[in-house]
Design goal:
The complex is a heterodimer of chains A (311) and B (562). Chain A has helices at 3-25, 50-60, 94-106, 122-129, 131-135, 170-174, 195-198, 207-211, 215-225, 262-272, 286-293, and strands spanning 42-46, 73-78, 111-116, 141-145, 152-156, 165-169, 177-181, 183-187, 191-193, 230-239, 250-259, 306-310. Chain A has 311 residues and is an alpha/beta fold. The termini of chain A are far apart. Chain B is elongated, with a radius of gyration of 28 Å. In chain B, α3 runs parallel beside α8 (115-128) and α6 crosses α10. In chain B, the strands form four sheets. A two-stranded antiparallel sheet of chain B has the order 1-2. Chain B has a two-stranded antiparallel sheet with strand order 3-4. Chain B has a two-stranded antiparallel ribbon with strand order 5-8. Chain B contains 24 helices and eight strands. The chains are: A alpha/beta (311), B mainly alpha (562). Chain A binds chain B through residues 83-85, 111, 113, 120-124, 127-128, 142, 144-148, 150-151, 170-171, 186-192, 207, 210-211, 215-216, 242, 245-248, 275-276, 278, 280-281, 283-287, 289, and chain B through 163-164, 167, 170, 174-175, 177-178, 180-182, 442, 446, 484, 486, 524, 527-528, 530-531, 533-534, 536-537, 555-562.
Chain lengths: 311, 562
Amino acid sequence: MSHDKSRREFLKNSLIVSATLAGASFGIIDPVEAGAENYPDMCICNGKDAAIITRQAVEALGGIKRFVKPGAKVLIKPNMSFARSPETGANTNPVVVREVARMCAEAGASRISIVDNVLNNPADCMKMSKIPEYCKDVPNTHTNYVKNERLFREVSVESGTQFKKMRALSDALDADTLIAVPVGKSHGSSGVSMSMKGMMGLIYDRTSFHNRYDLHESIVDMVTVLKPHLVVIDGTRILSTGGPGGPGEVIPLDLVIASTDMVAADAQMVALGKWYGKKLQPKQIKHIRMAAERGLGRIDLDKLNIKKISV
Amino acid sequence: MKRFQRLIQFVSFGIFLLLLVWAAYPETREAPVDAFLRIDPIIALTTLIASREFQTGFIWAAIVLISGFFIGRAFCGYVCPMGSTIDLFQSLIYPKSKLRVTRAGYEANRGRRSLKYYVLALVVCAAIGGVSLAFLVAPVSLATRFWGLVIYPVTLWIADLGLDLATPLHQYFPDLAYIQISRRVFATNMFIAGFIVFVSALAVKGPRFWCSYLCPAGAMISLFSKRPLVHRSVNSSCTECGKCVRNCPMAAIGEDPHSTAHRECLLCLRCKDLCPANAISFYPNNETLKPEPFTPDLTRRAMLLSAVSGLGVASLFGTGWNEPRLLGQERAVTPADLIRPPGAMPERTFLRLCVRCGLCMKACATNTLQPIWFKAGVEGLFSPSLVPRLAACAVNCAVCGSVCPTGAIRKIPIEEKIQAKIGTAWIDRQNCLVWNRDKKCLVCGEVCPYHAISFQPASGRRNGVPVVHSNRCCGCGWCENKCPVEGAGAIKVSVVGELRLASGSYIEKAKEYGLEFKVADKKFDKLAPDTFESSGIDEGGDPPEKNVSPKQEQLPAGILDE
């Protein structure tokens, strides 16, 4: 590389950076979207093959490279806290999780950590969810459960209404990219459990959310900090009743939703599914509505740029 | 040659520890994990007398006794895990120079040496009175309880501490963070540890103080070891230097170095190693022993006192208010939360059989089995009881009975165990979220593996209230364990309705009593015993009205009206 060229590049880069900064400061350019074409806010991909629809959905958002830079540390948060097999819908479809992990590996992630704080016997959750089994051959990927306090550390929740501090998984706080890969399912306490409720699997003292605080407010407090960069909701089948653990009615929807907006993704999953034998409006789910009201994402699905694909 | 003794002792203790580790769920190994407990003569004797029943397992202890004819107290020196434990701890506490008998020679220690025979007499007489004191004095019981309920959890604790201290390394080895150990906790552990430390510290008065002066199992073997086939003999090259007399850890050599108290000799071979004249040998021989071996000198008065004390202890226990079932009384005066493990014998028999070795508690899959203090009286010290608030009894596990050396907990297959009702849950309405605070909560019903809790309408309550169907409740304690109410919880297991059968089938008895225990079938093998399909799935049974809410169409919390 010649001296000249690198100088030229330096100048060019400086120009781009200052222009971007200037743009950002005037609100012309959203820094997250900087340099991007017009990505859709969300993609809903329909199809029978879970791996293909997962990949297509993420591709439609601009591809995984948009979220995972080479050498990045990625934390994937699936649902795998029940000792139940994939078809029961209590855990995320292992094929979906594997495909997300594969994409991260292809993007050059240095470490891909797939983690959940399990509710049932840890070894059985790992065995029955099949997520470790499916993901073991994906490069740089490690699937683990978490139980021990030493894996968590305190983090402040500036805009918390219920609490100002919480203990969250250190690995998640340190990750360059946080990806939520929940399954769409019903939930006896929060109505439904998707990307936002699912983040409770990265919290040490979950019971306080149920007992001490208002659960719905707590979920929103939590996701102000544990805000996923990418949400991939497994809608290959949903657990329509009996959630979070089941057994309950499992409805195949053959779709995957990908979005950068956790609130919108969750809202979309609510709108697409049938819950407790009913169609529900996203705004009926207390924590989703609260999250939108607190400006964490959008619930006005009709105003979003949503790309729909069928494969 | 002393190395030989140490080698055998090391191997033997290794086997003891291995069997202790193997005493765990799942019972995949056919290994006799209770082998060491079965060969303890005092466990066999007290259990035999106190329970008035012969068990074939006692034959192993008889073999140990008979071994006295051939190898004297070699069992104590080579095999006994309590002996090895004391050897280990006394050498940790004291420097080698201090580990010697303060008064050398057999004669100097004659008096207190008789103590162990008195202890034996006391224990036997207490057993005649129907009280097993094995838990206080049986060496293998003491050692098993110590290693199982103190050292085992401490080892896990240390490993966990190590992982804690290694936290700074997580940034270099991220996977290190995910090594997670499930620790164990045991009640009464300080007392168990303290006792062993105390017994080992007695070595200040002489090495293996316990074995020389107190151990009734040692006393039993001594009775058979007057002239063992293999014994110490001294030939004519002895210069009477007295080195062996001063160094014998058991003070088993008299002032005359030719003499030996074979009843006290552990065949450790130290004297043979030390002898400058090479005058000592231990080869089997029948030549006349010179001089005549010592005999224990017991006084009639002390013997009588011991026997009376034994009966006295038994009589005090028998007239204490914890007596399991008073004559002519319909009910026992037992605390409501004295939940015995599934398959436990009727209380009186149970206490006579249980030697408090702690193997059931060590093996327990969930750590719910805990040694108790005085909940069942002094007589029940260290006996196992469930603490559901700590953990529930895993449905598909019967390991406590399978490891029990004396049958205090019956060895029953899983199918029987699932029907072995240990108590019944009851709801403390003053604390229940649904009853008292008019909240919605279904936790107890959701976790119940026996479908024993349903939710029914109650006047003045917005949500269905939990109702325990006692004929379906097995007392496993899942509900009590998971109840979200802090402190004691609002649903608790009590002994009501427990099945304590000395013999016969729990399945048949349950049928006779109209009990309907139905758990979801295990669909998958090789899962933890506390993993089961949640209560909604019921294959073959018709569950009670599940989660009936006053308003059937009511949606769960968190969903707002349109």
